[in-house]
Amino acid sequence: MSTASTAPSSPIVHAMFDDLAIDSGFTTPDRSSSPSPALPASPLASGLHKVAVIGSGSWGTALAKIAAENVAKRTSEFDPEVRMWVREKQVNGKKLTEVINKTHMNSRYLPDVELPENLVAVPKLADVVKDATLIVFVTPHQFLHTVISDLKRVPGTITPGARAVTAIKGVEVVGTEISTFASLIESQLSTPCSALSGANIALEVALGQFCETTIGCPSGVDATLWHAVFDAHSFRVSTVEDVNGVSLGGALKNIVALAAGMVDGLRLGGNTKAAILRIGLSEMTEFTLEFFPGAQRQTFSNESAGIADLITTCYGGRNRKCAEEMVKTGHSFDVIEKRLLNGQKLQGTATAQEVNAFLSARDAVSKYPLFEKVYRIAFEGMPPAELVKGL
Ligand SMILES: NC(=O)C1=CN([C@@H]2O[C@H](COP(=O)(O)OP(=O)(O)OC[C@H]3O[C@@H](n4cnc5c(N)ncnc54)[C@H](O)[C@@H]3O)[C@@H](O)[C@H]2O)C=CC1
Ligand SMILES: O=C(CO)COP(=O)(O)O
């Protein structure tokens, strides 16, 4: 497996794509006056790019909606059908895939949001990625390894020349090594992999409320393609080279959001929460720069994937909500997740555990006191009131 390094992604994988290189795509085009830039070539004989989305929770469905709306406007460059992998479930006696394809709503995970008709729910993973050239990974992070294993089981499942992006928030820790899901996907599936993250509460995005996101891309070609797939008037995409910074911003802010929820549960005020956000942003940034040396400080201070995502999650996210409930009731996160999230998954608790295990293995826990406090309150019975003592 790949580990933290200055290289955002594998040179071997990128060498395969050099012939497709075009000018750097690391600028957001001025969409008000200029036409969309031409896309790099598709590896398919049809010449079209084809988007597949793996994951159909609230965020998977919201991203699939945006992608389907965008590709429908560029049918000379994209196959108009976007397939979305739905882990089959019965909803009121009917299969979820059938409900989505008939009603054009994901009643289970994103109710009341109308989905475009060219977004098709598909229960078999192999059918979703068949002929896909642009693959979006957006399952809860607990399930990524299973998805990768399933994709690897049948050689040839992934189209040669396909590219990936991950919108999953979390990190991969093995002993003293830490890596991003983008590098995990790249190394396991031999696809270059970008990372999409930002201040993006799924329902608000799906309702078309204006927001921004950041996509960290290993090359300008990836940046151009993913910008075309996702940029919209209410979902402004900025592309940067810092895949690791974008990935770590999304993962680590979930630990800080647990702390913010604990502050709310303790009924402390806005000053305390602001202090937690400041300390949290500082630990997120320093952790990333220490263990991913090529990452950029500006990703945290200037990008949606940094400060903006931290703010929205600490005020409106599920991690915040569940942590508040944990402090108020004393119940475990497992119990609260089941009770409050209706089948959705918390990401911050697993990330707090993984980061703590990594820092312990590196003998560096004490350098990140807020991360340590969150872990100890969540998993070791430390009283929540200890959160702000001695920070
Ligand atoms: N919901 C949000 O507002 C945002 C979520 N994200 C990130 O996107 C990722 C996915 O989150 P959501 O779409 O919210 O998912 P979710 O939390 O709504 O989880 C439901 C999804 O998990 C799947 N699932 C449940 N058990 C499974 C299993 N055993 N194997 C495979 N899949 C299983 C379900 O089929 C469903 O697609 C997470 O890493 C999250 O942090 C990022 C930005 C916003
Ligand atoms: O990542 C998110 C918003 O950008 C969603 O955060 P939660 O998982 O805490 O809801």
Number of strands: 12
CATH topology of the largest domain: Rossmann fold
Q: Approximately what portion of the residues adopt beta-strand conformation?
A: 5-15%
Largest sheet: 8 strands, mixed
Based on CA atoms alone, the radius of gyration comes out at 20 Å
User: Can you write the helix and strand succession as a string?
Assistant: HEHEEEHEHEHEEEHEHEHEHHHHHHHH
**Spatial ordering of strands, largest sheet:** 5-2-1-6-7-10-11-12
> Ligands bound here?
1,4-dihydronicotinamide adenine dinucleotide, 1,3-dihydroxyacetonephosphate
EC number: 1.1.1.8
Active site: 253
Family: Belongs to the NAD-dependent glycerol-3-phosphate dehydrogenase family.
Domain Glycerol-3-phosphate dehydrogenase NAD-dependent C-terminal: 242-388
Please give a structural write-up.
Residues 50-218 form the Glycerol-3-phosphate dehydrogenase NAD-dependent N-terminal domain. It is a single chain. With 391 residues, the protein is of the alpha/beta class. It contains 16 helices and 12 strands. The strands form 3 sheets. The chain has an 8-stranded mixed sheet with strand order 5-2-1-6-7-10-11-12, with helices on both faces. Helix 9 runs antiparallel to helix 10 (270-291), helix 9 runs parallel beside helix 13 and helix 12 packs parallel to helix 13 (318-329). The two termini are 35 Å apart. The chain binds 1,4-dihydronicotinamide adenine dinucleotide and 1,3-dihydroxyacetonephosphate. 1,3-dihydroxyacetonephosphate binds at residues 169, 199-201, 254, 257, 309, 312-313, 317-319, 347.
